[in-house]
Structure formats: structure tokens, C-alpha cells
């Protein structure tokens, strides 16, 4: 995937836009087929074009109708389980990013405390540190086990 923005395509003339839409449609259907096989899921696509009365349906009108009808006949609780809303998708992405940030913060805190521990070993006084640094050092020191012979 290229990651290009599509905003400027709105201003293309119809003779340029039509072949581009056809290529994208074929690509979309190919991806749907791959997803269906790879993930062992049933996929159906319905697209409504502005200048067409009938929708564009994949894989066929009969199969898409069967799939959507089967989905719509499920109890509401089952439908919700099978649906991924945009809101849920974004919430999951945000949660994953927040977790990454927290992990990096923990790693940075650990590195900082190891640096402070080395500074203390090299003569830095404890009275030069703030409460957060002292608390972190206490935790780091607790992780080390000292054995006497």
C-alpha cells in the first residue's frame, strides 16, 4: 500500500476517474478474496455508485444476500460480538499505544535509576536527589540480592 492521500482525486474528470475506480474495485475484490481464504471468513461487499441505480456486489448478489441475511438474523448479542465498530477499533488502538508508552516510561525509569546507582557508587551524595529519585533507587536496590560469605 502506498499511503498516498486521495483528496486530490475528487477533482479528476470522469474519463480519468473511471479506469482508476475500476482498478481499485478489482483490487478491493481481490483483497476481499484473499482475506476470505486467509482468515477463513465470509466476506461480502456492497458498493453504491452515484450514477448507478443498482449496487455493485461481490462475490455475487445471491451470496452477498445470503451472508448479510444470515448476519442480520443473528440475535443482537451475537451481532455485537461479530462487529467491530470504528469506535472500538480506535479505542483498542489507543489502548495499545498507551501500553507502549507506559512500557517505554518503565524502561526509561529503570535506565535512569541504574545511572543514578552508578553515580552513587562513584561518589554522588543522596542529599542531591529528589524524592522520586530516592524512591526509584530504593526499588532498584531492593532488586539486588547481596550475599555474604
TrEMBL record:
Residues 1-53 form the MADS-box domain. GO terms for cellular component: nucleus. PROSITE patterns: MADS_BOX_2 (PS50066). InterPro entries: TF_MADSbox (IPR002100), TF_MADSbox_sf (IPR036879). This is MADS-box domain-containing protein. It comes from Cuscuta australis. Gene3D superfamilies: Transcription factor, MADS-box (3.40.1810.10). It is found in: Nucleus. Keywords: DNA-binding, Nucleus, Transcription, Transcription regulation. Its main location: nucleus. GO terms for molecular function: DNA-binding transcription factor activity, RNA polymerase II-specific; protein dimerization activity; RNA polymerase II cis-regulatory region sequence-specific DNA binding. The keyword Transcription regulation applies. It comes from the Eukaryota.
Amino acid at each position: 500500500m502506498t499511503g498516498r492521500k486521495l483528496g486530490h482525486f475528487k477533482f479528476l474528470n470522469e474519463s480519468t476517474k473511471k479506469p482508476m475506480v475500476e482498478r481499485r474495485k478489482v483490487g478491493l475484490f481481490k483483497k476481499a478474496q484473499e482475506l476470505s481464504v486467509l482468515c477463513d471468513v465470509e466476506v461480502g461487499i456492497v458498493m453504491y455508485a452515484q450514477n448507478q441505480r443498482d449496487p455493485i456486489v461481490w462475490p455475487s448478489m445471491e451470496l452477498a444476500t445470503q451472508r448479510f441475511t444470515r448476519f442480520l438474523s443473528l440475535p443482537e448479542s451475537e451481532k455485537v460480538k461479530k462487529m467491530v465498530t470504528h469506535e472500538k477499533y480506535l479505542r483498542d488502538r489507543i489502548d495499545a499505544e498507551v501500553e507502549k508508552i507506559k512500557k517505554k516510561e518503565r524502561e526509561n525509569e529503570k535506565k535512569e535509576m541504574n545511572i543514578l546507582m552508578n553515580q552513587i557508587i562513584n561518589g554522588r551524595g543522596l542529599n542531591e536527589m529528589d524524592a522520586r529519585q530516592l524512591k526509584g533507587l530504593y526499588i532498584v536496590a531492593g532488586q539486588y540480592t547481596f550475599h555474604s560469605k
